[in-house]
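Reviewers of the previous submission asked for a worked example of the structure-prediction workflow described in the proposal, so we include one complete record here. The input consisted solely of the amino acid sequence. No template or homolog information was supplied to the procedure at any stage.
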Amino acid sequence: MNNWLARLRIDPFTLALLCTVTLASLLPVAGTAAAVMDDVTDVAIAALFFLHGARLSREAVKAGLLHWRLHLLILACTFVLYPLLGLLFKPFAHALLTPELFVGVLFLCALPSTVQSSIAFTSMAGGNVPAAVCAASLSSLLGVFVTPLLMTLLVGSQGAMAHPAEAIGKILLQLLVPFLAGHFLRPLIGRWVERHRAILRYTDQGTILLVVYTAFSESVNEGLWHDTPLPALLGMAAVAMVLLGVAMVLITVLARRLGFDRADEIAIVFCGSKKSLATGVPMAKVMFAGSSLGAIVLPVMLYHQIQLIVCAVVAGRYARRSGSVPR
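From that input alone, the workflow returned the following structure tokens.
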């Protein structure tokens, strides 16, 4: 019981996110300072994806090709199942959410899987960790291409994504080019990156906090909280919980029906149901503009915390069933 309660504690990064949103709400940056912060954020995002590229080993890419059925199912869950589930909320969107929050839900559904926590929960549950490493890395890489294309199909010129083709070009230039540069330089800097992995984790988190602060500052200046009532925020939390719950059940059923063993099922469930905050927030800054940016990243932030709590509980249940941890 105590272990279960411990997993429900809010982690320091989530507290930092809440503090950042509060700071942006009370002291939003504006004017010349906002322009400078915007440029600094662009550089930080490029550096973030450069380091992500340097972390992806060639061995992981090669190994991923060998377990193609597992990876194909995870990619289908991430980039097909989730967008379809997101569209199912459209009839209820007007009653539960603001238009910007619903665009945020669709953006959430179009995001790739997260790498670090997918691997961590797969390991905790006793699943196929090498497969999780390959699947999550592949999802993250393909997301640079697939997410903007999906958003073009889902929202088109609506939801502050006024020029989809231009947004896709920007995201490829600002995210993919640094990613590929980091990956190709891995033979030179890979060992240094591995040695400083713990420190670079804070670089990731710092970049996310910086993007969140600038995004919410701009949105607050344009009336974010005035245009987003409390019932819409509560509705957003409910949508995130239902989305995750339905997706995890469907993914589990699919994995079992398709004959995957228990270890592969665990990797599929966690990699297929996770959505990346580390990729999503920088992507949103590139793809969207204007006062709606804060509302669009809000669903991703809510889903992030909910998925950590739920996946910790589910991973614990998997582990207990396999007898790897005591009851």
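The CA atoms of residues 43 and 174 lie 9 Å apart. We consider this example representative of the routine output the project will generate in years two and three.
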